[in-house]
Amino acid sequence: MSLGDTIVAQSTPYGYGGIAVVRISGADSIKILKTISKQIKNPKSWVARKTKIYHKKDVLDETVVVCYNKPKSFTGENMVEISCHGNPFIVDGIINECIDLGARPAGPGEFTRRAFENGKIDLIQAESIANTIAASSKAGLFNAISGLGGEMSKAIKDTSKDIAELLSYCEHLLDVSDEDIQKDNKTHVSKKTSEINNSLLKLIENYDTCRVLTYGAIVVLAGKTNSGKSTLFNALVGKNRSIVNEAAGTTRDYVDANISISGVPIRLVDTAGVRRSKNMVEVEGID
């Protein structure tokens, strides 16, 4: 990837649909739009315009376009978003026109990378964009949007500032001050250290919670034979997925199902009971 050039890519999922969005970012993005539309001469920033997109003299599609002048755009560069009909032939045609005029295909995550490198977002917000897309539950989505809004970044910056101030205070006591270290000084350092430690523990806890809410958890039911694992599995899943029988060793291979508990996505796995067995099929299932 190289900053300074102009990139183009489809921002919506590939395939057929009502609407698709093609995004262009870079110094030549608005110039390229003027060339392929032929109708827009002086586009206004943040104003939607209806226009036709051309391939030579032929109309590719009738679209709605929005221009964003730097730095007031997602990437911090001049940007154009073209909303066209969701036909892959139309989308490919628009992208190819942009490439013919000097743009290049964007790499994976390159729009987000440019936003980061131009100071529009930080690394946590960049990760939150991916989490917003990948969230597998409402709770995970809300957490990702919170991170995108900068709440996690602010908490980390505040904690970092507290650490820097405490270090500065300690260095002053040790290297600058002519007075002996007093009990009050030690109490202050101890109190601030405890507060910082609690803040860090809370950040770690929030990270673990966000990770589970976004990507889900894997819960494995393991234990001795005939301990009720398969019965519990079926009860949680809400239907008979695992065979339940009084005979020990009924479950010989793992059975899994995706469920949600209190908004948390969970992959539940029922496993073979652990015991010594002469049945080679059951032994392989346990292993």
Inertia-based shape: flat
Structural category: alpha+beta
Strand sequence of the main sheet, in spatial order?
A: 3-4-5-2-1-6
CATH class of the largest domain: Alpha Beta
Share of residues in strands: 15-25%
- Show unreliable segments: none
Mean pLDDT: 86
Give the count of helical stretches: 9
Organism: marine metagenome
GO molecular function: GTP binding; GTPase activity
GO biological process, one term: tRNA wobble uridine modification
Protein name: TrmE-type G domain-containing protein
What does this protein look like?
This protein is α+β, with helices and mostly antiparallel strands and 287 residues long. It has three domains: 7-117, Gyrase A, domain 2 (2-Layer Sandwich), CATH 3.30.1360.120; 138-213; 217-286, Rossmann fold, CATH 3.40.50. The protein contains nine helices and nine strands. The strands form two sheets. A six-stranded mixed sheet has the order 3-4-5-2-1-6. Strands 7-9-8 form a three-stranded mixed sheet. The model has no long low-confidence stretch (mean pLDDT 86).
Question: What is the fold's blueprint, element by element?
Answer:
Blueprint: E1 7-10, E2 17-25, H1 29-37, E3 48-55, E4 58-68, E5 79-86, H2 88-100, E6 104-105, H3 110-117, H4 123-134, H5 138-148, H6 151-176, H7 183-215, E7 217-221, H8 229-237, E8 255-261, E9 264-270, H9 280-286
List keywords for this structure.
3 domains, GTPase activity, 3-stranded mixed sheet, flat, 9 helices, Gyrase A, domain 2
Summarize the structure.
This protein has 287 residues and is an alpha+beta fold. The protein has nine helices and nine strands.
